[in-house]
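Lab notebook page, bench 4
Experiment: in silico fold of construct C2
Operator: M.H.
Input chain length: 66 residues
Purpose: comparison with the prior construct
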Amino acid sequence: MTKSERVIIAGIIGMASGFIIGTILAPWSGEELQKKIGVRKRTVEEKLKKLESKIDKLAEKFKEED
């Protein structure tokens, strides 16, 4: 077995074991995780809208000064 074959096999074993351990130790079910992601997404969207508004106001102030 060549060195590159060993590296490929080790990578495959590492990915498979990571998947298995992650599945076993996952703190939430898929449905719960989707809900949490949805809440987080809405929170981030709200913060981005507020930031966009602040940036627009700041840009207007700079235009007024010119």
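Observations: The first helix runs from residue 3 to 25. Residues 3-65 form one domain.
Next step: discuss at group meeting.
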